[in-house]
Amino acid sequence: NLPIEAAIAAHRQRRTKDKNAIMTMVLREAGTAHRTKMQRVSPVFVLDPTKNRCLHYEQMRPNQPSHLVTLDPDILKEHDELEIREDLIDCGIDICTPDVLALWSDNFDYEAPRKGFLHSVLKDYELNGKTIHTHIVDEHYAARVKNLRAYDAVTKDILSRWAYPICPDSNLVRDQTYRLTKGNVYREEGVVLARSCHIGPRTVIGRATAIGDGSEISNSVIGRRCIIGRNVKISGAYIWDDASIGDGTVVKDAIVANEASVGKKCNIMPGALLSYGVYISDGMTIKSRITKVKRESGYDQDEIIRGETDKEIVGQKGEGFEYETSEDED
Question: What is the distance of C-alpha 292 from the center of its chain?
């Protein structure tokens, strides 16, 4: 819900005075422990507050041996006032001039907008003379979803109405019918709730979903046409459309994707992810990411093929195998 008119106006005014001002980044003030901040990487911005100019950028990891910022001595000589800030959330909103596209096309080794492009442009200021500026806001809401941790954090903020009017009961998507009830519970039409089930705060339930007797759901998003059995406990989880959860199963801080099915008395542990169409047999404990398909590199493009089921992980009647993540994946 962040209006960017002020950022665009400031960018245009700055560009009129200085043709080398090629980009403005929109950043949001937040505490150092805000849940929408990146967890594995802490972005550090060195700014000239008198010109709203970014002078240096680094990414720090919690496990790196040194947490010192290395600045070019010329930055200290040429600027009377500096701010070194680690409390800013990168919204992923950049207002750019055509010069940015030209720099990207001339440098094919830029792999990321911040770690590659931003860092390099700031480092090469003496060579190219291009400057990058910031527009920092302390009101409204904006965040970039780039991994599952951010997906969870932004969803929780939306359900808590920090991003109002971006919230389920605004029904911004065609054919949605969500209504807000006590405790930030959002329900669509056609939901079937057993008399003895309990729906806790910050929960979304989609159309035509049925929830059985004795089940408890809180801090979770349940999609459309889902079947939740009896005595199921779901907390901090995301159950997508057409999924089913068997009687007595516990799902905590996990994702169950479209058309996935979980048997009876299973335990889906925090951080687990069941991909599209995965089936988990009764009584299984899942701690990892499970999928039915894998990607194989081809000549022109990658090919998606069905993998071999691992019965030790998904059970005798299950379908799926453990997905191996890369080291850089968050």
Answer: 23
> Residue 52: which region, alpha, beta or left (left: phi > 0; alpha: psi -120 to 50)?
left
Q: Where in the chain is the domain with CATH 2.160.10.10?
A: 148-322
Q: Count Cβ atoms within 10 A of the Cβ of residue 148 and give its class: 0-12 exposed, 13-18 middle, 19 or more buried.
A: middle
Domain 148-322 has CATH 1.10.3720.10: no
Please return the burial class of 13, using the count of CB atoms within 10 Å of its CB with bins 0-12, 13-18 and 19+: exposed
Closest CA to 181 of 193, 12, 129: 193
Note every long-range contact of 126-132, with CB atoms under 8 Å and residues 24 or more positions apart, other chains counting. 126/74, 128/103, 129/20, 130/20, 130/22, 130/99, 130/103, 131/18, 131/20, 131/21, 131/22, 131/53, 132/21, 132/22, 132/23, 132/24, 132/25, 132/53, 132/54
Q: Is the pLDDT of residue 76 over 90?
A: no
The count of residues in the chain is 330
Q: Quick one: average pLDDT of 59-74? A: 78
Q: How many CB atoms lie within 10 A of CB 311?
A: 14
CA dist 194 and 31 (Å) reads 41
Residue 226 has pLDDT above 90, yes or no: yes
Q: What is the pTM of this model?
A: 0.83
DSSP3 helix / strand / coil % (the chain, rounded to 5): 20, 30, 50
